[in-house]
Amino acid sequence: MTVTAPSNKTNRIRSVTIEGFRSLKNIQNLELPPLTVLIGANGAGKSTLIRFFEMLSGMLKARNLQEFVLRHGGGDDQFFMGARATPMIRAEVWADLDGVSLKYGFELDYLPAKDSVLIRCEYWKRKQHDLLPDNAVRSFSGAALEPLLPEIDDSDAKAICHFFSRCATYQFHDTSTLANIHKRWDVTESFRLRSDGGNLAAVLLDLRKTDGKRYALIVKQIGRVLPAFKDFVLEEEAGKVLLRWVGRQSDKVFGSHLTSDGSLRLFCLLTLLSLPPERLPDVMFFDEPELGLHPHAITLVAEMFKRLSKKRQIFIATQSPYLVDCFELENIIVANANNGETMLRNLPREHYQRWLDEEYQLSDIWLQQAAGGVAWLGDTQPVQREGAEEAGRGE
């Protein structure tokens, strides 16, 4: 199996089992579609699933499990209700890579002396077809601070490490005075957009030089949402470039510090989603990308998500009804919190089709509970809307 250039098939995470990681006490074989939209109220645990994949990616890309644990509160905080209540974290991930299904699993123990974690075991195997038996599990056990899989001279192990190293989380929330997006950026760091959007100016400058049509499309898309926007002003000085733009009403040049938070996030999102696939990771996670965006911008971004999901797997964590309504029932996974435990569930179409037939939107189903959780209705009929005719409603 090659681990170099991606094939025409979309490499993706198919399913995941997680036991004991933070609020994810018992997630079993959760199916993940190519475009996954995680919805849930504040504190429901949407971001926890993204943090798990951040940890996994860092483990296999740079062997930085210990750094992740240190940056995220220490070892005890990684276990559900603490290591005394949950002594072990266990996880398994199935991924489809170039037509082959590969599984990677691991177990973590608590290391009290350093308030960290130990890897107790790792294992991996492949399945080429659902009708064929699994290949023998290959594994190793012991006590290690970092994963051993990246050191294994095995094609499947290398494919797993390569794939998960090409996962990235994007969060363009930081637009504060000291945010990277306000800084002059080295023009050579321009192939991929950073997870915080800090090198946006360098990426845009490179696109203007090397792919004028794509750059012009980005400018046009921004203008659809921000009619006052005309073009970016990208001038290289001493090998660095600063994010600036000019409007249609005058020749005044606006710096990023004079740009609204929502506009800066829009610049980042539209640029990222317009990049050619070879400049994007295999799996892309977005944590509340709708923050600060106008509903019209949310609709545009959602359409771009759907188009890109044909080539790259996309995860979106959101609590925006506008964004949820842009997708299909099969894309949705709902996060609910129950006594500190996050429950992640798909929405079976057979349970909710009657709601959709009654012209309810996905957000109507989700917002039935006052706190923002979804009502698990099973075979329950839609409730009667205010002012609706009684006939045919709620029967």
Describe it:
The chain is of the alpha+beta class. It contains ten helices and 17 strands. It has helices at 46-62, 65-71, 155-165, 200-210, 212-225, 261-274, 295-308, 321-324, 349-357, 362-366, and strands at residues 12-19, 27-31, 35-40, 88-97, 100-111, 116-127, 138-144, 167-170, 185-186, 229-232, 240-241, 244-247, 253-255, 283-287, 313-318, 332-338, 341-346. The protein has a six-stranded antiparallel beta sheet, covered by helices on one side. Strand 1 and strand 2 (27-31) form a beta hairpin. The longest helix has 17 residues, at 46-62. The model is unreliable at 1-8 and 369-395 (pLDDT under 50).
- Strand percentage: 25-35%
Shape: globular
Summing up helix and strand content along with how strands pair, one would put the structural category as alpha+beta
Question: DSSP helix count?
Answer: 10
Number of DSSP E strands: 17
Helix content: 25-40%
User: Taking strands numbered 1, 2, ... along the chain, how are they ordered across the largest sheet?
Assistant: 2-1-4-5-6-7
Query: What is the radius of gyration?
Result: 23 Å
Distance between the termini: 55 Å
Order of helices and strands: EEEHHEEEEHEEHHEEEEHEHEHEEHH
Poorly predicted sequence stretches spanning 5 or more consecutive residues: 1-8, 369-395
Sheet with the most strands, sense and barrel status: 6 strands, antiparallel
Q: What is the averaged pLDDT score?
A: 87
